[in-house]
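Can anyone check this?
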Amino acid sequence: MTDISVMGRDPIHIQGVPGVFALTNRTRRFAYIAWTTNLQKRSHALAHMLDTGKSSIKDLPMVDGDGKKLKPDEFIFIVLKEGVSDEDADRTIQRMKKPFEEKRYRLIDGNRSPIPILELKGETMTLTDAIAKYNPKLKYTTAWRRLQRGWTPEQVLEMDEAPPRWGKK
């Protein structure tokens, strides 16, 4: 007989709508709170991530102190608020973090904003606006991945030379 371990969901049936969610581990008292365009798909993706043990969330603990993989059933995906627009995401996330902080949960860092914000030439703007203004031919996904790799906004938008590639001078 096999031991089946599955991430919990609250509610069990999740709609494919935008919203704010928390991925929590009540035993170890940590939570990752974020916004997504599709709660249903995000819960499925996180369940798969927990099952494989390969986290796309940088600081999310996937092993215990002894190096053993955490079981997916230690985690629960909680829908905190449905129908949250990308414009309201950051404000809603901040509001939703407070109850977890009050219960002394450790909050996991990650890219919680649906739209990366850049500081460029003394001006603050979204990644989308920066692409439109400085490099309209650049694909959004390419720019976003460059940011994830730690490139500066100028490097992302090809205004400065790209950083050297791994293993190359």
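Reply from J.R.: I decoded it. The chain has two domains: 8-107, 117-156.
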